[in-house]
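Action item from last week, closing it out:
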Amino acid sequence: MEDIQQYFEQMQEDRKAKALVVHDLVLALYPECTVSMKYKMPTYESTEGWFSIGNQKNYWSVYTCSMDKIDGYLSRNPDTKHGKGCLNFRKRDEVDLEGMKQVIQHAMDGK
């Protein structure tokens, strides 16, 4: 987990605080998940699916494998910047933790 800690330590403070809340949420929901660096970002894997947190140039993101994993979050938070299966958070963006919990569960449970 040292490489995971280093990854978060290198993030800008405002991003790091929010990303660590999501990191802690994943670990609370899936304490038995495997955590490793894949595609140069922390990736959390269960037997059914995966979820990743990434740090980009102008934002930080969470990644899942498809759009249907993030649809619920986007219906609750339609102004959230996103791509196919990822949510992007800029400095001013807040994270809807209840919505994020659903994203994590859909991604990790493969549903």
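Closing note: Residues 13-29 form the longest helix (17 residues).
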